[in-house]
Amino acid sequence: MADSNSEIVVIGAGPAGLTAAHELSKLGRRSVILEQDDQVGGISRTCEFEGYRFDIGGHRFFTKVDYVRQIWREILGNEMLTRPRLSRIYHDGKFFDYPLKPLNALLGLGPVEAVRIGLSFLRAQIAPAPRVASFEDWVVSRFGRRLFEIFFKTYTEKVWGMPCSQISADWASQRIRQLDLLVAVRNALIGSVATGQGEVVTSLIEEFEYPRHGPGQMWERCRDMLSEFGSKTMMETEVISVQHARGQVTGVVAQQPGMPEYLIRTDQVLSSMPVRTLLRCLDPAPPESVLRAAERLNYRDFLTVALIIEEPDLFQDNWIYIHSDEVQVGRVQNFKNWSPDMVPDQQKTALGLEYFVQEGDELWSLPDDELIALGTRECETLGLASADKVVGGSVVRMPKAYPVYDGTYQESLTEIRSWLDQIGGLQLIGRNGQHRYNNQDHSMMTGVYAARNIVGSEYDIWDVNVEEDYHEERDSKNLSTSGDRLVPSRIEIAPLERRIRELYARIDPVALGSAMGMMTGVTLFLATVVLLLRGAETSMPNISLLGNYFLGYGVSWFGSVVGLIEGSLAGYLLGWSMASLTNLVMRIEERKTFAAFEAGQMMNLYEADES
Amino acid sequence: MNQEDQNFEIEEMMLQRAMVRLRSRALSVVCGLLGGAILFIATIWLVIRGGYPVGPHLGLLGVYLPGYSVTWGGSILGLFYGTLIGALAGWVLAALYNRIADARAIGE
């Protein structure tokens, strides 16, 4: 095994890794950057196919961190363009403004749908769900079920791969913009609004900065600058192991294709590789429990089908959200509208069809040509481009694009961090390095702080707080000090809530009605038949009095059949009414119980009853 | 949607749609106790009030309940019949309700 001199090792040439190396270079320190892929930029790379450049997702450049903006300028100078933003939603063959504008939405949906939406909205207001636990509950309770189904359900489920009924309502309240109807109407009428601090609400930003040749241009330029400084970026280099001893990093073993493994001696490693992968690479290996915690971390993956289309202008949007479930594509990027320089031939257009997938699933595993065919078909289905105009295509798969915040990730991450904290010289940076859904500027700052820590600063890189209300309005009581970008988490029904629901389970009115109907009808029938068979004349006049209520009933064979039918009907009505009324009362009681529970009074609920 | 998601959704859906199931034995005991007590007390009440004839209308139950009459002895028999019929009715009601509710839940 070859052995190089001691230097600072940066694992991963994404925004975090390259920014860390850039910051180190400003501090006069050289580093070596190890990148497994053949391109720099991580998820912010810009890929190229026949001269057409396309991104992995869209990457608007805007930040409220001056230092990040300064870095962008240092790297790209005047290559940053200011671009107009237009994004719309595609649903049922029509386009709707995004962010949603009520007037535009209602006009697009038509009068019949508008009435349905109105009725569904009224219903949600008059009879709200007893409990708002899920994303679905939250949106339905504010907009009604119809609007939820049109504008929220399909896209959310495509992106996150889980039903809206399982996504926590907290995410909806934090993530969705302008769900206050008054705010939405005001925005529709007068455009962008100012916040209390006089800042334009970021979600309504109508323009953004963007490198002339895509975000990859920034990171390619950064790599070149680092190279000029003397910091090497080793491409297609796999990290075999990260060695440590006596609580200190000692080296990194890496390997390039077809080459022998080599050791880089170092006492400083900045890792932006996925936490799970890093833990697998540590030598000696962490305890079994820490490895298990790492294996519990999950990711959402992503693939882009880039299509070259022989049309100069397809649509004006930067991107379009696809809310229709007739196609699998979730979002369509028009890279020419991000920057005209992304397309070498202005008579053509490059589209990026984005599919949110799970590594190894059916879509992920499809061969490239089938994915291109699928993208072409879906483009035509959506009416965006005719299939015969597609002159080329390419596929890029991006594993681990989004860290998943599931029910166990926080616990797992805490365990991993507390163990990794014992290894001196190892700092975790970036989105996958920290398993946090960072924006690009957030990732960059983790790299900046980690670099400064090497020369003596004491930043807590886990506490990078870029801008909490960065994208969306957020509920102040739910603000995270970490500055995390919001990711939906799965609802966890607490045992107590579950018990409450079970406690107030409804009586089935149809079942009780039917059971009582059968019993009443059969009883009356048998009672009549017994009298007829026994000839008990003294009883007959009495039971015949039922004829006052049951039309046509009498103690006769015909009457027994009438009694069977009408007795059944009467019994059904009685049972159904009993169940329905009981359910109504239970629903009121359940709502009261949940209200008490949510108000944190559950602990003394029973005590209050006893007093 | 993966298996875990599917299971969660099914579980959640079941919980949302959960309908009460009646316990046949419990309803049978309750209806039996009530039925027996009602017929026993109703009979004794008429016997104590006296008059002639004693309880002519309630006595018509004798058509359906062999041996029953509005007398002290009949009250004991009424207790037995009331309990028996009440218990049977309660059990049948619960069984029928549960069968129908189950069938409807599967149908959904």
Kindly give the count of domains of chain B.
Answer: 1
Total strands of chain A: the figure is 21
The mean pLDDT of chain B is 84
Largest interface: A-B, 31 and 25 residues
Shape of chain B: rod-shaped
Kindly estimate the percentage of residues of chain A that lie in beta strands according to DSSP. 15-25%
Per CATH, what is the topology of the largest domain in chain A?
A: FAD/NAD(P)-binding domain
List the SSEs and their pairings:
The complex is a heterodimer of chains A (611) and B (108).
Chain A: E1 2-4, E2 8-11, H1 15-26, E3 31-34, E4 46-49, E5 52-55, H2 66-76, E6 80-84, E7 87-91, E8 94-98, H3 102-109, H4 111-126, H5 135-143, H6 145-160, H7 169-175, H8 181-190, E9 207-211, H9 215-229, E10 232-234, E11 238-245, E12 248-255, E13 262-265, E14 269-271, H10 275-281, E15 282-283, H11 288-295, E16 298-309, E17 319-322, E18 331-334, H12 335-338, E19 349-357, H13 362-365, H14 368-381, E20 390-404, H15 409-420, E21 426-428, H16 431-434, H17 440-454, H18 495-503, H19 509-534, H20 540-544, H21 557-598, H22 605-610
Parallel strand pairs in A: 1-13, 2-3, 2-14, 3-10, 7-17, 11-15, 14-21
Antiparallel strand pairs in A: 4-5, 6-9, 7-8, 11-12, 12-13, 16-19, 16-20, 17-18, 18-19
Helix pairs in contact in A: 1-9, 1-17, 4-5, 5-6, 5-7, 10-11, 11-15, 19-21
Chain B: H1 3-16, H2 24-49, H3 72-107
